C-alpha cells in the first residue's frame, strides 16, 4: 500500500508575496507582531460577482489553488483536501460582532454561511466544478498535516490519482486581538524577529499554500512525500521516541537525513521542542521558515514549500539556514519537517528528492 | 475489502437521552426531544424549537468528573461525555495498548464561550482561559486528553456532514493499516451564533419540523454528541470483541452548486450514495433502510428526495429522517444518526419520521411514519452540509 | 420618490458589496435578480434585512420578496407604502 506521492505544483499567497522562484531570495525577515499577506490582484482570477462576498482567506485560497493546479497542468483534481486552524474567522468575527452590536437583530446571512471552516475548499470546488472528495481538517498546528495524511491515504489506496491539498489561515482583526490579549501574539508595538525574540508571544501572520499532489511523477514534479505522522501531545523528552518510531517505520537512518526543517518561532517553550529534534539529528542541516512565514496554524505548509524548493533546486537559499555557518553540502535527498505548537499537534513529514 | 471495519463501541448524548438505551427508548416510544431553549437567554426563545439537552455545563462537568477550573466548552463537555460511553461499551481499559486515534468533528467548537465572554477579553483577563478553547481542534485535544489517548488526534469540519466524514476518515485509517482502533464522531452545542445564523437564512421552522412533508417549513436545531469505536475486523476478533455492526461503505462528494443550497437533482448526494454502495460492494437493492439527512428545509428534502429516487429508482427502501427527535445537531448529526442506524440493525427497527402527513407534490416519496419492526441487513445514512459537502455511510448487520 | 430610489441604490451597493458599480449604473426598472444585476437568493435575504433595519418593514416569507425586489422601482413603491420608519 505504501508508495510515495509527488508534489507536482505549488501555489501560495504569503507575507512574502505569491509563490514564485524568487520567493526565498527576495524574502524579508518579519519583525512585526502581525503581518498581513502581500496579496496579489484578484481581478481576472475571481469573477466580480463571486469576489464581492469573499474574505481574504477565501481569495488567497482560490488564488493559491489555481496557481498550484496551473503549475501542475492539472485542470481537474479528483479530490480537494484542506486544513485550517481557525477557518474563516473574518466572517465569524463579522457575524459575532453584529450579534453583539445589534443584540440578535438585523443579522444578515452572508457572513454566517461563509463562517464555516470548509468554505475555502467548498468555494474552490464550486469554481472548478469539482464534484470529487472534499474534506477540511481543523486541528491547530496539524490542520495542514491532517489534510496531507488524508491526501496520502487517497493516493496510496488508489481512491484518487490527483489531489489538490491546501492550508489556509487568515488574519481576522478581532480573533487576532483576542490572541494578543491572551499572550499568544506579541504586543502590537514589539519589533522582534524569531532570532531576536525576547518578549512573550510570537509574530503572527496569515497565508494560503496549495499543492497539486499526484500518484505519478511529471515534468513539473518537485519532490516526493513519503510519509507523515501525527501525535496529539508530547513532553520534550518524548519527542525522541516519536522521531525514532517514524524513522524506523520508514527505514530511514538518521544519518541519511540531509536537512531538517524546524518550526522555530521565538517562543522559548516552543523552541525547546525544535532544539531537541535538531539535537537528535546532528548530521542534518537545520533550516527554519517562520521568520519569513509568521506563525499561524497552517504555516507549516510553508515548510513543505521550502522542502519542495530545496529538493528540486538542489540548493538552500541562505535566509533559510538556522545556523550562522552554512554547510558545504551540494546534494539534498532526504528532508524531514517537524512541527508542533505549545507541546501539542506534533507532526513529522518525510520528503525526498525525485 | 468488504466488512473490514467493526464497530465495537458507541456512545451518545442528545435531547432525547443521555445514553444509547435512553435514545433507543425514545425512538421506540416516538418521543421527541424538542422544547423551547432554556440554557441561555435569546431573543429567539419563543420563536423556535430546539433539541436542547437539559443539563447545565456545571452538571455535565460534574458527571464526567472534571476538577475546576477548566476550560471545557459545552461542545467539549458533550463530546467527552459521549466518547467515554463509547469506550466503556468497547471495554477499552487501556486506550493505548493498540495504535489508537481520535477523529472528532465540530462546527461550533468553542463559539458558545466566545460569544459569552468575548466582549470581556480585551478589558479583563478573567475569562482568558477560554481564548484557546475557541478553535475547533481544542475540543478534540481535550476529549483525547480526557480519554488518555496519546496518538493520532485530529478534527474534521465540513459543516453538517462533519461527523460522517470523521467516521469515514477513521475507517480509511484502519483500512490503510495506520491505526488499529479509532474513536470517531462529532459534537456540537447549541449557541446563539448558530441559531441566529440559521435564522438569518430563514430556514428555521417556528413549528416542529416535518421532513419530507409538503408543508415543511424548515429545520429545528439541536445539540449533542456521539462517538463510535472502530476497530479492524482482525483486531476485534483477536480480542474477542462484541461487534455491534460493520461499517461497510462510505462515500464523499461535493455538489459544487452553491455555498449553501443543494442542487435541483441532488448531484452531490447522488454521487455520495453511489460511492458508498461501491465501497460496500452492494447494489441499491441491498439497502433495507435509509436514515436520511432530511432536515425539513424545502431545499434539502426535495434535493435529497430526487437523489434517492435516482439511486433507488422504483425500489425505494424504507426511509426516515430522525431529526424530528433530536433536532439538527450539525457536526454531530452524522454520528448521532450512525448510532441510530446501528440501533436499527441491532434491534430490527425502522425509526419513524415524526410529524409527516402530506407527501411532497414534486416526488412520489413517503417516509416511514410509524415504528416498524423488521430485520435489516444494510442501512445507509446520509449527511449533507454547507459548501456542497455530501457524505453517505453504510452500516451492515454484525 | 426619486430621492428614495437614489438612497436605495446606494444601500443596495453597500450591503451587497457591489464593487465597481455606482448608483448611476442601476436603472430604476432594471431587474435586480437573474439577467439584470445578477443578484441571487442570498442577496434577497440581505435585502430583507435592509428593509427591516432601515425602513421597519418585516418580511417573514422570502418568497414574497421576489415580487418586491423585482427592481429599484418596485422596492421604492413598496417601501413608500409600507415603511414604519
UniProtKB/TrEMBL annotation, chain B:
Domain of life the protein comes from: Bacteria
GO CC annotation terms, alphabetical: cytosol
Repeat recorded as keyword: no
Segments forming domain Ketosynthase family 3 (KS3): 2-397
Keywords for this protein: Transferase
Molecular function, one GO term: 3-oxoacyl-[acyl-carrier-protein] synthase activity
Biological processes per GO annotation: fatty acid biosynthetic process
Pfam families linked: ketoacyl-synt, Ketoacyl-synt_C
Family: Belongs to the thiolase-like superfamily. Beta-ketoacyl-ACP synthases family.
Protein name, as recorded: Beta-ketoacyl-[acyl-carrier-protein] synthase family protein
Native organism: Sphingobacterium phlebotomi
UniProtKB/TrEMBL annotation, chain C:
NCBIfam families, A to Z: PRK09184.1
This protein's UniProt keywords: Phosphopantetheine, Phosphoprotein
The UniProt record lists the keyword Cytoplasm: no
Transmembrane segments: none
Domain of life: Bacteria
Protein name: Acyl carrier protein
Lineage of producing organism: Bacteria, Pseudomonadati, Bacteroidota, Sphingobacteriia, Sphingobacteriales
Organism: Sphingobacterium phlebotomi
InterPro entries attached to this UniProt entry: ACP-like_sf, PP-bd_ACP, Ppantetheine_attach_site
Carrier domain boundaries: 1-83
SUPFAM superfamilies (alphabetical): ACP-like (SSF47336)
